[in-house]
Write a structure and sequence with these properties.
Number of helices: 12
Order of helices and strands: EHEHEHEHEEHEHEHEHEHEHEEHH
Helix content: 25-40%
CATH architecture of one domain: 3-Layer(aba) Sandwich
Structural class: alpha/beta
Strand order of the largest sheet: 1-3-2-4-5-6-12
Radius of gyration: 23 Å
CATH class of one domain: Alpha Beta
CATH topology of one domain: Rossmann fold
Strand content: 15-25%
């Protein structure tokens, strides 16, 4: 467990790391005040008697300052993650200021962003690490000042940090198991993965291969790293179609399911069973496309809001027993009444088609749909 101290000094980070990057951090609630301490508890009078204390009104809940670092702005999942964090910070009533570093940058840029967030006087830092191995140094430096660090979706290798993420191994297994069962336990599958050596893709691959071991008559006829890039995914899939090889099903992740369905239609290829994420565009296809059998596996971007809730719990002295808080994915298949019902409940014209439709996490977020769609943090 981290020992939480209200230390505002950032000397451990080094002067070079604290050079502010223009436009990197945007305080959602006004100008930062590094010298202030929103996390200090009200002082209790040393001379108060137990009777007087019992008659006193309940103390105002402690509020905190939180920083959030995101390194990609043209991705629906990331945008929703930021909006989820803002909505939860506002709804909680416990966040005095949420400072967001939200820009397209690399690991070096994120290292600077984390240092800048620490310099604003935050009590906790939440980050989606673009490269955990590179960002670790800034995370360690932040924790040395007494801050809580919560990683989103990708763990950082820093003792004392926390993680909120989809259980990606379970994600890979759940979708693959549904697909293999739907194929009757035998057939040829196209396997469209994410970026090579990405820890999320590695975990999903582990789950996929666990399911594959349960279905020995399933054969992989094509395995491709798509980088979760729609253009790359379509190019690689079209190259496979050009080979003329037979295939009976498709597994995808990372929000590329909809463009693969479109590629099948463009090529006049059969609409074989397909697995994708719960991105709005793919869910809409599962409900509307005649003859399409498929399943959406949830990968909730509401882990951003869950990260805020977790940070508040830790700051309040209630850390989780396991520093890795994993969210179990759900499978919404359109070939069952229950699955189709979940797809219909999730499908919402108010939500951007690029967003995952699991916009809340029961028990870990408390905002409403209108809160996340407003995408406003405290005092915005």
């Amino acid at each position: 467990m981290i020992k939480i101290r209200r230390v505002r000094s950032v000397g451990a980070i080094g002067l070079a790391a604290l050079v502010l990057t223009t436009g990197a951090c945007a305080a959602d609630s006004g100008s930062p005040d590094p010298a202030g301490s929103a996390a200090s508890s009200p002082d209790a009078s040393a001379g108060a008697t137990s009777a007087a204390a019992s008659a006193a009104p309940s103390p105002t809940p402690t509020t905190y300052r939180i920083g959030l670092s995101n390194t990609k702005t043209d991705d629906g999942w990331r945008t929703e993650m930021v909006c989820s964090a803002r909505a939860q910070a506002l709804t909680s009533g416990r966040v005095e200021r949420l400072t967001v570093a939200d820009r397209d940058t690399d690991a070096a840029g994120q290292t600077a962003d984390v240092a800048n967030l620490v310099a604003t006087g935050v009590d906790a830092v939440i980050l989606y690490a673009v490269d955990p191995d590179v960002v670790d140094e800034s995370v360690v430096a932040a924790m040395e000042t007494g801050l809580v660090v919560v990683a989103i979706d990708r763990a950082v290798d820093a003792e004392g940090s926390y993680l909120v993420a989809t259980d990606h191994e379970a994600y890979g297994y759940a979708g693959a198991a549904w697909l293999f069962e739907t194929l009757g336990g035998k057939g040829k599958v196209v396997y469209l993965r994410g970026p090579a050596d990405d820890p999320i893709d590695t975990a999903r691959d582990s789950g996929f291969k666990r399911a594959l071991a349960d279905f020995p008559d399933i054969k992989i006829v094509s395995e491709t790293q798509t980088d979760w890039d729609r253009t790359v995914a379509v190019r690689e899939f079209n190259a496979f179609l050009a080979t003329g090889k037979d295939f009976d099903g498709i597994w995808t992740s990372g929000g590329i399911g909809a463009v693969i369905v479109d590629a099948l239609k463009t090529a006049d290829a059969p609409l074989v069973p397909i697995v994708g994420s719960d991105q709005g565009s793919f869910v809409s296809q599962l409900l509307a496309e005649e003859g399409l059998v498929g399943a959406a596996v949830t990968d909730s971007a509401a882990v951003g809001g869950a990260g805020v809730s977790l940070a508040l719990d830790i700051l309040d002295g209630r850390p989780p027993a396991d520093p890795a808080v994993l969210i179990a994915p759900e499978v919404w298949a359109n070939d069952t009444d229950a699955g189709r019902s979940r797809l219909e409940e999730a499908d919402d014209p108010d939500i951007d088609l690029g967003w995952p439709l699991s916009i809340m996490i029961p028990g870990r977020t408390t905002y409403l749909k209108e809160d996340i769609l407003a995408c406003k943090g405290p005092n915005q």
